[in-house]
Task: inverse folding
């Protein structure tokens, strides 16, 4: 479908349900996409960090993206992550994503080796030129050695290389400076890059980002409660900042599930992704809680805790925690 310019709203990074053998559970993924669409989301981001893209083989990436595109059936845009270490590898993923029907691409700067801003600019320009689809930059310093310079983002926005930015830097000051440089909340859309979309990746400060002029949010927690983020977004768009803040506070409480996994037993990614999948399993959306190897699954006690937090947030589970389902 035609991509709105700028893209706005709630665009969750879609989890990739796995079966006990570590393969993509396409039936569960289709149910998850339906769950997100029923929640009113404005787009879908397949093959992002919350999708466990770094753990998936090329064949698994293709299976997951094809399932998301087919289930969405043109109702909302589908953004495909083409995240990899070097430009040639990213271009290969981009060609596959285009063939499978993605509406836009999401890419980081090259990583593993350190790159100069000129090299990063060349990377994004070649991707835009050769892929033939709109490109969103994914600013995630923890994965690529550094933050995208604001001057580079402005340059690539103004010359049309980038259609937007997903900011997962955690640097709220830099996000605010970017938005001010693009015209600020009252003038967004009339500045030097009117079609450029700024999306926050921080689930916990969405109301503040929207107040500053962000166009939307890419919330991992949106897999669990898409309707909550849509309510937050719609309240902000209507100027109901008190209502937006109240919804944000409820979601902050729900997000606490990501810290349930014991820090001395598992990585923070395992804990966060495990909590999202446990929540989706408890809600009856997906068939298994499995996370990609070698991530460590949540234990029964932690899954029960996820269930309690779902209930407290007004999302009562339909299943009870049990052992033996996490893998």
Result:
């Amino acid at each position: 479908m035609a991509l709105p310019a700028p893209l706005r709203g709630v665009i969750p990074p879609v989890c990739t349900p796995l079966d006990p053998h570590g393969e993509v559970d396409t039936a569960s993924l289709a149910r998850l996409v339906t769950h997100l669409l029923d929640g009113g989301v404005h787009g879908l981001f397949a093959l992002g960090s919350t999708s466990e893209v770094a753990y998936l083989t090329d064949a698994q990436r293709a299976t997951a993206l094809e399932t998301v595109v087919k289930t969405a059936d043109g109702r909302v845009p589908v953004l495909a992550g083409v995240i990899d270490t070097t430009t040639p590898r990213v271009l290969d993923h981009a060609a596959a994503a285009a063939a499978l029907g993605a509406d836009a691409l999401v890419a980081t700067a090259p990583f593993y080796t350190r790159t100069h801003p000129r090299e990063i600019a060349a990377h994004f320009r070649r991707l835009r030129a050769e892929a033939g689809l709109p490109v969103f930059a994914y600013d995630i310093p923890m994965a690529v050695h550094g933050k995208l310079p604001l001057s580079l983002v402005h340059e690539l926005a103004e010359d049309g290389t980038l259609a937007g930015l997903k900011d997962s830097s955690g640097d709220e000051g830099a996000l605010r400076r970017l938005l001010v440089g693009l015209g600020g909340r009252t003038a967004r859309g009339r500045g030097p890059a009117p079609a450029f979309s700024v999306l926050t990746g921080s689930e916990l400060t969405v109301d503040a980002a929207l107040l500053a002029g962000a166009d939307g949010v890419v919330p991992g927690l949106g897999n669990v409660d898409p309707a909550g983020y849509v309510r937050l977004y719609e309240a902000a768009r209507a100027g109901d900042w008190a209502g937006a803040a109240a919804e944000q506070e409820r979601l902050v409480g729900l997000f606490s599930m990501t810290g349930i996994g014991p820090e001395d037993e598992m990585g923070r990614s395992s804990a966060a992704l495990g909590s999202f999948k446990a929540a989706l399993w408890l809600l009856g959306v997906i068939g298994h809680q499995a996370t990609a190897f070698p991530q460590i699954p949540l234990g029964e006690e932690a899954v029960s805790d996820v269930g309690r937090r779902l209930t407290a947030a007004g999302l009562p589970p339909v299943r009870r925690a049990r052992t033996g389902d996490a893998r």
About this structure: The beta strands are 9-10, 44-46, 78-81, 104-107, 135-139, 164-167, 197-200, 216-217. The mean pLDDT is 94. The chain has one domain: 9-240.
